[in-house]
Structure formats: C-alpha cells, structure tokens
Amino acid sequence: MGNVCSKSSNPTDPFAQPGRVLGSQPAPADTTTPLIRNNEPSKSHTTGGRALGGGGNAGGSSDARSAAARAAEERAAKHSAAAGKGKLSSQLAAQKAKSRNETLEDVSRAEREARDVQNADETRKWN
C-alpha cells in the first residue's frame, strides 16, 4: 500500500507532468535526438513453395501420400498383432463384431433370466 501514496521516481510517467487544454498544440518534440531510418531495401524471402493455381509438384504430394499409407499399414499391423494377445482382447473383438440388434438381444436375455431368478426366489419365500 505504500507505493500507492508515494511519489514515483520514474520520470517517464505521463501523469507526473501537468496536462494540457483540449485543442492546444502538443508539446514540441525533442529535436536533439536524430531520427534513425533504415536505408536498406526490404529483402523478399523466397521459399520452396508453389505458385497459386499451378499444377505444383505432384511428386511431393504422392510421396507424402505413400508415406502416410505406409504408416497407416504399420499401425494396422501393430494393432492386429496386439488384438490376439489374450482372453480379454478376444472377448472385446467378439463384442465389437456384434451388431446393435444382437447386443440388445443379449441384454434382453440377461434381464429376463434375472427376472426369472427373482420370481423363483419370491416363490420359494412365499411357501
């Protein structure tokens, strides 16, 4: 809280000097500092890009496509090799192979079996 009420030692503070009236001329600029200009011409950067609308370099894109295809094949081969690792992965593969209707039928069958077990238990308790 002390620096809120203290004076700033920074001379470039714009609020340290009194202001000016609206419509008056700004303070004259310091003419002792010469302006520095860049006399070098601007350098244009040329890169290996293609011109817009042109046919371009078809060989480069086919190389990228073939590299992407090779990488995708390697990932697929690695994934298929990992799929045959054990019991859980084979169960997961079988579950993924089922259609939506088959999955719903399995769930329905499990629910019916659970209801039958519950009804049998209630019947046993009744007698």
UniProtKB/TrEMBL annotation:
Keywords: Lipoprotein, Myristate, Palmitate. Pfam families: SVIP (PF15811). The keyword Lipoprotein applies. Residues 1-127 are annotated as: Disordered. Residues 50-59 have a biased composition (Gly residues). Residues 60-70, 79-90 have a biased composition (Low complexity). Residues 99-127 have a biased composition (Basic and acidic residues). Residues 1-12, 30-47 have a biased composition (Polar residues). This is Uncharacterized protein. It comes from Arthroderma otae (strain ATCC MYA-4605 / CBS 113480) (Microsporum canis).
